[in-house]
């Protein structure tokens, strides 16, 4: 009888431990801002990029963050940058940022073809343009991920 009781207690304890780990692993970061409209399906991405290149005016690069409001990793990255004063300041000082929408409403297929299909890396994907609009680099965001978010260090 004692052996069965020990097995039952051990099973219950393991079940609670597993549930606690699952809850911790799937906990979502606190969202400091409402980013449900971070990406705009009706936006003219090409015009937004041209305006960002003009604002960069030889002083900054342009960062295209390609994704959508449906993409939790896109939101996580934006939240990390906005919530961290050091990252936010660095990004604003060095880049003009354009959120390029990819969703069923607007896939921006022509623009993404011109950028050599960066979406093949998944979402979000980052494309860095120089201040004249020339593509310098395409970055898969997976390299920046850590746990349930993105790493400031990476």
Automatic annotation (TrEMBL):
SUPFAM superfamilies: Thioredoxin-like. It comes from the Bacteria. Pfam families: Thioredoxin_7 (PF13899). Residues 1-20 form the signal peptide. Transmembrane segments: none annotated. Keywords: Signal. This is Thioredoxin family protein.
